[in-house]
Design goal:
The complex is a heterodimer of chains A (228) and B (355). Chain A is 78% helix and 0% strand. Chain A is built from 10 helices and no strands. The longest helix of chain A is centred in the middle third of the chain and has 37 residues. Chain B is an alpha+beta fold and 355 residues long. In chain B, 26% of the residues lie in helices and 36% in strands. Chain B contains 10 helices and 20 strands. Chain B is globular. Classes of the chains: A mainly alpha (228), B alpha+beta (355). Chains A and B meet through helix 5 of A and helix 2, strand 6 and helix 3 of B.
Chain lengths: 228, 355
């Protein structure tokens, strides 16, 4: 027990003030996961709107697929992205392997089904009413989309928070495609994993505290937006 | 605007919601769509207002076929219709925000006088700056109507606009509907409320299980229903089943303890007699009349309907509902227990075949 307490104390001390290296790791974590969430939502928001508003053959199957995709293990997505971006893979010429680009791609793929499914679930109750209201008052296609997005903004925000929380905490896949290269692709989770295995328990704890704080800060900020 | 639908049909999955509907709607007229729950009333309105696309059939606006039109044109035509939903759909924001949403979508400028006008017409003048979602049910429904009136569409599609409303809101909406129809609007009103249909509608459409049962002039459909469904729904209060027989050279409906003289029908056929309460004469003692149908019994209950009093009278086990004016009720000293005579003509009996 004292070992853990000692680690907590030392870890906290490491953060006062944080070193440049830690700051860099935090910044990269936020940047990669933020970009991945954004990229995923660019596809997930239209997808959830489409699924919420359109009636078509095979819709249930598609929704089922999205829900299933949520439970695909991250490491399999890592495997897929690795295969895509490795030098001999179809995207090999982009030289993305062990770069933040590969990490963003993998995290976006991980977040996409989650954001789509959560947004869809939340939209179910409101999308049809928002559509009816806007259409009946004379909205054209563009105004209709804007009205539904406006009515569904809380739904999207909630889904984004969940998506971001999921990817910023992901380790194995990020390690596979990012490589945990110091100063280049080292993010909070991969650093915690590495330092702990190296026996640097206090550094792991320090980074863990930062990870929690970072996740908390983003959540608070987004929930603040939601309150408005 | 004149609207015509041809062989209109809608399905949801494997379930048929509407089938083979042919109808016309004219300007300056209130068309009441009647029918039990699940009859397809709302679906029909949604198709007419271009909120959904039909799976089958065609809709024509002023002779123009809609199915073939590109999206932009559909939007333009949709803007000629106004929709009032059964459960109010309101934006978060004030009453005024809700009113201004429609004009904003259409790129129209709306002045203060217009806003005040529609608020006054719907009795919402004091509510302009209130949060719309905090209004009472009746006020929300009136706001929906005001929002549509501000856009001044040619067609009003009203989906049970007065269901579960307080009498004041109901009256307000009903008088607005009457006024709009006088202004030449095409009004299509789905309702459960038969009194409302009688009060407002020039034409009545009766739907059941997605199919058209009867359509026509309101007086015709409501007093001469083609089927027992309509009679029962339209609360034709006095429906008495029996078997047709010939007695002393006259056709009667033998209802067991009661035989009602009727006109028409085939001997031996099963039928139901429908007698509208307003066609039955109430008197203290039997009256000399050419009308052969005269029955006597005690009053079971007296209900005050405002303009008239409704009496339930027990004649040999059949309870008739009849109307008398407030004055005659007082003059004849009618109360529960009083014995009265009911008299009606054979021609007032509407016969419905029973399968």
């Amino acid at each position: 027990m004292s070992y853990i307490l000692e680690g907590l104390k030392q870890g906290a001390a490491l953060l006062l003030p944080p070193s440049r290296e830690i700051l860099q790791i935090v910044a990269l974590s936020l940047a990669v996961s933020g970009a991945a969430t954004l990229l995923a939502s660019l596809a997930a928001i239209p997808a959830s709107l489409f699924l919420a508003l359109k009636e078509f053959r095979g819709k249930r199957l598609l929704v089922g697929l999205v829900n299933t995709a949520m439970s695909v293990p991250a490491v399999l997505i890592g495997l897929l992205v690795y295969g895509l971006v490795t030098r001999r893979g179809p995207l090999g010429s982009l030289q993305l392997l062990f770069t933040p680009g590969a990490m963003i791609l993998a995290q976006a793929l991980l977040a996409f089904p989650l954001i789509t499914a959560l947004a869809l679930a939340a939209l179910k109750g409101i999308a049809r009413d928002a559509r009816d209201l806007a259409l009946s008052l004379g909205a054209n296609r563009r105004q209709l989309a804007a009205a539904v997005i406006r009515q569904g903004r809380f739904a999207f925000l909630t889904a984004l928070i969940a998506g971001f929380s999921r990817v910023i905490g992901e380790t194995g896949m990020t390690l596979m495609v990012g490589g945990n290269i110091k100063g280049q692709t080292r993010v909070l989770t991969t650093a915690i994993s590495l330092e702990t295995m190296k026996g640097n328990f206090e550094i792991g704890i320090a980074l863990g505290i930062v990870l929690l704080l970072a996740a908390l800060a983003v959540n608070v900020a987004l929930q603040g937006l939601q309150g408005k | 605007m004149h609207i015509r639908v041809e062989n209109l049909g809608q399905t949801a999955g494997k379930k048929t919601i509407l089938r083979g509907i042919d109808l016309e709607f004219d300007p300056g007229m209130v068309h009441a769509i009647l029918g039990p729950n699940g009859a397809g009333k709302s679906t029909l309105l949604r198709l007419l207002g271009l909120l959904d696309k039909p799976d089958q059939g065609e809709i024509y606006y002023d002779g123009q076929r809609l199915g073939a039109l590109p999206r932009a044109l559909r939007t333009r035509l949709r803007r000629r219709c106004g929709f009032v939903f059964q459960s109010p759909l309101l934006l978060a924001g004030t009453v005024e925000d809700n009113l201004r949403f429609g004009p904003r979508l259409r790129g129209l400028k709306v002045g203060d006088p217009e806003i005040r006008h529609v608020l006054a017409q719907t009795g919402l003048s004091g509510r302009r700056d209130q949060e719309a979602r905090l209004l009472s049910g009746g006020e929300k429904q009136r706001l929906q109507l005001a929002r549509v009136m501000l856009l001044d569409p040619e067609v009003y599609l009203l989906d049970e606009p007065t269901a579960n409303l307080d009498p004041l809101s109901m009256k307000n909406i009903e008088s607005a509907i009457a006024r709009l129809s006088r202004e030449g609007k095409t009004i299509i009103l789905a309702t459960h409320n038969l009194i409302q249909a009688r009060l407002l509608a020039g034409r009545v459409v009766f739907l059941k299980e997605g199919m058209l049962v009867q359509a026509g002039a309101a007086a015709e459909v409501l007093s001469r229903p083609l089927s027992l469904d309509i009679a029962e729904f339209s609360a034709a209060e006095n429906i008495i089943p029996g078997i047709l027989a010939l007695r002393e050279g006259r056709m009667v409906l033998d209802c067991g303890r009661l035989a009602i003289e009727v006109v028409g029908g085939h001997v031996g056929g099963r039928a139901a007699a429908v007698i509208r309460p307003e066609d039955i004469l109430v008197s203290e003692s039997p009256i000399a009349s050419s009308a052969r149908n005269s029955f006597r019994g005690p009053i079971l209950a007296v209900a005050d309907l405002g303009a008239v009093m409704a009496l339930s009278v027990d004649c040999s086990g059949f309870v008739f509902t009849v109307f008398v004016t407030r004055i005659s009720c007082a003059q004849m000293n009618l109360a529960a227990g009083t014995h009265v005579s009911l008299t009606f003509k054979a021609t007032s009996v509407h016969l419905l075949p029973v399968d």
